[in-house]
């Protein structure tokens, strides 16, 4: 019987799943390349075909959204321009497939006569901006609260835990739906119409303030498990202050799960923002919005389904690409997880 | 078991009290003048004062909250003399705009939402769990890979897009289904079902994606456990091993998520209701929000929270019933 307390010699087996064969002794590979966990994660992500495809999709979406004014300049169309002369007497676009032609690549909106391609491109900007800003806000609050609760423990930790439980009992979507118009009423009387920027800020604030709890809970757990480790003790023995330990010792160790939650939060916010716009609570006219386009298209589904198709497909592809990339990111950062 | 349930009930009641305080504060303390908001744009100062007085909004906020809670449990009376309005026991407020107690609106709208959600839930659970189970049993086959692809796409699909696609394909272009409508179940069960097939399909297909992924993962995990191997070694037929042993163990986490999903949906299927023009609770919330009809908004938001809290308790109890390991602790 061999002594079980000693591990068997490692060299006898080579893990077939290891990214690079440990081939220090084989001729032609004299060097063993040392790689940090981050480099390994990056390698795994680069090798993932789904991740590459969704990253390309998102890059294209980002370029299109950023270059929206350029597109408007090239085509000479403004998103608010109305081409009423290209609609028939019933307000329906003239021509095949919702009025698609060389001037209007995705046709025109029935009723208003605006160019769908331009609405879509500018709507993409709104959608991505709201989603990224909300995810950033929620993560910053979540990380701050989570680190604080995990580090301080005691009553602060209990309060945070209780808050997290409470927000879970709140129906988020319905709540956001109700809160946004009421807060707007607080700041604007009904005679003046609020600026579009205010509405966007209100939406971002509502999303951010009500969805930090998941990140906070995650970060709190990580901090609690890390704070007793030797490297923290070593830092403290070396005379490091609390700020240094939190920011320079703990935070770099928990960025991976935070990154994954951010990447999965963005598609959720894209979907929720569009859902609110779908019931006319989101971004207001004249700011173009994908969800509101779908809402406006309900009445035309029978006569002009193209009007529904383009914004719907855009949101679907955007959410799908973000979800796939988020999954791939999680898999690459955590090698133990399996598909 | 009884102590477990009692403790959960206590926590739930506390949660509800806090949730109601927050919602109440939000809807009656945040707006500059709730009475003005409720009265509408063309109201004079005298009208507003009248609304305030009749609905009791001129009182201090804590008193208003106490009145509200009293109304929920014992009913209350709004106004006096000619304007006297009785609001019997579960009084959730009085909508000045509709000239109707909010409870009446809720009672009218709730059956629509319940029908949509419960029918949809049956479909999404049946579809999701069976798809997940079959693809776990046929892991790596073409069927499994196709199922994974479809469920990945389905999990990223939006109700507002998918519902309109179904509406176009099944109603407008082929006429296979009637346009959705609501007929009470007690009045005509066949028409009730026919009018709700489309919303059921929309919710069923989309939500089943998540359940298929989840139950596939759970099933794969349980199938590799020792007790399943033991069951196989005893010589039990495969079907019995898969359903009686593996599925039963795999299903517990799914029950949790299903309970919470159903609870959340009951509070607001407003997108489904908006697409298909069904007058449920979600649609009532959306309409009330657009006109800032505060009593209705507050009642529906509160009700949505109640559904979630109740669903939580039901899930906890169900968990103990299904999984003996939970009961022992």
Layout of strands and helices, then pairs:
The complex is a heterodimer of chains A (339) and B (329).
Chain A: H1 37-47, H2 49-66, H3 68-75, H4 116-152, H5 154-169, H6 172-187, H7 196-210, H8 213-226, H9 230-237, H10 242-278, H11 290-297, H12 306-333
Chain B: H1 2-29, H2 34-39, H3 45-55, H4 61-74, E1 76-78, E2 85-87, E3 94-95, E4 100-101, H5 102-137, H6 142-156, H7 159-172, H8 189-223, H9 226-233, H10 238-250, H11 252-267, H12 270-276, H13 281-290, H14 294-322, H15 324-328
Antiparallel strand pairs in B: 1-2, 3-4
Helix pairs in contact in B: 1-14, 5-6, 5-8, 5-11, 5-14, 6-8, 7-8, 7-12, 8-10, 9-10, 11-14, 12-13, 13-14
Quick overview:
The complex is a heterodimer of chains A (339) and B (329). Chain A has 339 residues and is mostly helical.
**Overall tally of structural domains of chain A:** 1
The CATH architecture assignment of chain A turns out to be Orthogonal Bundle
Measured distance between first and last alpha carbons of chain B: 10 Å
Estimated radius of gyration of chain B: 24 Å
Q: Largest interface, by Cβ-Cβ below 8 angstroms: which chains and how many residues each?
A: A-B, 43 and 47 residues
Shape of chain A: globular
Q: Percent range for helical residues of chain B?
A: over 70%
What is the CATH class designation of chain A?
Answer: Mainly Alpha
H-E string of chain A: HHHHHHHHHHHH
Descriptive overview:
Chain A has helices at residues 37-47, 49-66, 68-75, 116-152, 154-169, 172-187, 196-210, 213-226, 230-237, 242-278, 290-297, 306-333. In chain A, 64% of the residues lie in helices and 0% in strands. Chain A is built from twelve helices and no strands. In chain A, α2 (49-66) crosses α12 (306-333) and α10 (242-278) packs antiparallel against α12 (306-333). With 329 residues, chain B is mainly alpha-helical. In chain B, 75% of the residues lie in helices and 3% in strands. Chain B has helices spanning 2-29, 34-39, 45-55, 61-74, 102-137, 142-156, 159-172, 189-223, 226-233, 238-250, 252-267, 270-276, 281-290, 294-322, 324-328; strands at 76-78, 85-87, 94-95, 100-101. Chain B has 15 helices and four strands. The termini of chain B are close together. The chains are: A mainly alpha (339), B mainly alpha (329). The interface between A and B is large, with 43 and 47 residues.
């Amino acid at each position: 019987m061999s002594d079980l307390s000693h591990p068997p010699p490692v060299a006898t087996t080579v893990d077939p799943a290891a990214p690079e064969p440990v081939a220090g002794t084989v001729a032609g590979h004299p060097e063993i390349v040392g790689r940090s966990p981050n480099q390994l994660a990056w390698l795994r992500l680069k090798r993932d075909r789904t991740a590459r495809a969704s990253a390309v999709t998102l890059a294209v979406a980002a370029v299109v959204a950023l270059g929206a004014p350029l597109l408007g300049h090239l085509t000479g169309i403004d998103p608010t321009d109305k081409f009423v002369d290209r609609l028939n007497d019933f307000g329906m676009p003239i021509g095949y497939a919702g009025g698609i032609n060389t001037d209007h690549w995705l046709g025109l909106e029935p009723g208003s006569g605006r160019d769908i391609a331009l609405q879509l491109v500018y709507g993409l900007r709104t959608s991505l901006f709201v989603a990224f800003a909300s995810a950033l806000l929620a993560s910053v609050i979540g990380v701050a609260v989570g680190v604080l609760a995990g580090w301080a423990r005691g009553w602060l930790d209990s309060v945070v835990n209780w808050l997290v439980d409470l927000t879970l009992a709140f129906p988020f979507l319905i709540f956001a739906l109700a809160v946004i118009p009421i807060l707007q009423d607080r700041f604007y009387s009904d005679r003046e119409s609020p600026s579009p920027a205010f509405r966007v800020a209100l939406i971002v604030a509502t999303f951010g303030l009500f969805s930090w709890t998941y990140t906070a809970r995650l970060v709190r757990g990580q901090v609690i498990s890390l704070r007793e480790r030797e490297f923290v003790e070593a830092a403290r023995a070396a005379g490091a202050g609390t700020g240094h330990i939190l920011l320079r010792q703990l935070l770099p160790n928990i960025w991976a799960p935070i990154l994954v939650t951010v990447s999965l939060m963005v598609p959720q916010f894209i979907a929720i923002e569009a859902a609110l716009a779908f019931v006319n609570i989101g971004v207001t006219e004249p700011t173009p919005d994908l969800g509101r386009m779908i809402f406006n298209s309900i009445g035309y589904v029978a006569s002009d389904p193209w009007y529904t198709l383009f914004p719907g497909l855009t949101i679907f592809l955007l959410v799908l690409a973000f979800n796939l990339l988020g999954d791939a990111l999680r898999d690459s950062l955590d090698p133990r997880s399996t598909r | 078991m009884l102590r477990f349930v009692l403790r959960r009930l206590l926590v739930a009641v506390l949660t509800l009290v806090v949730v109601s305080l927050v919602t109440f504060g939000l809807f009656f303390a945040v707006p500059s003048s709730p009475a003005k908001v409720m009265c509408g744009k063309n109201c004079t100062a005298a009208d507003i004062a009248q609304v305030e007085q009749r609905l009791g909004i001129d009182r201090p906020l804590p008193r208003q909250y106490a009145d509200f809670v009293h109304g929920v449990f014992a009913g209350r009376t709004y106004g006096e003399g000619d304007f006297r309005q009785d609001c019997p026991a579960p009084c959730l407020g009085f909508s000045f705009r509709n000239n109707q107690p909010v409870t009446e609106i809720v009672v009218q709208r709730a059956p629509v939402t319940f029908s949509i959600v419960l029918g949809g839930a049956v479909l999404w659970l049946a579809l999701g769990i069976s798809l997940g189970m079959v693809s776990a049993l046929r892991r790596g086959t073409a069927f499994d890979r196709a199922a994974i692809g479809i469920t990945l796409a389905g999990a990223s699909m939006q109700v507002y897009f998918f519902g309109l696609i179904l509406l176009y394909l099944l109603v407008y272009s082929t006429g296979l289904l009637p346009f959705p409508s609501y007929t009470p179940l007690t009045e005509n069960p066949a028409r009730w079902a026919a009018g709700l097939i489309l919303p059921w399909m929309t919710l069923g297909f989309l939500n089943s994606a998540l359940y298929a992924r989840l139950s596939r993962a759970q099933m794969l995990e349980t199938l590799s456990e020792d007790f399943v191997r033991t069951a196989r070694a005893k010589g039990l037929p495969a079907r019995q091993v898969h359903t009686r042993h593996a599925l039963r163990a795999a299903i517990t986490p799914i029950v949790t998520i299903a309970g919470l999903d159903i609870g959340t949906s009951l509070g607001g299927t407003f997108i489904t209701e908006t697409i298909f023009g069904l007058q449920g609770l979600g649609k009532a919330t959306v309409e009330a929000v657009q006109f800032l009809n505060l009593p209705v908004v507050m009642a529906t938001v509160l009700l949505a929270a109640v559904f979630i809290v109740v669903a939580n308790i039901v899930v906890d109890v169900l968990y103990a019933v299904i999984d003996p390991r939970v009961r022992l602790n």
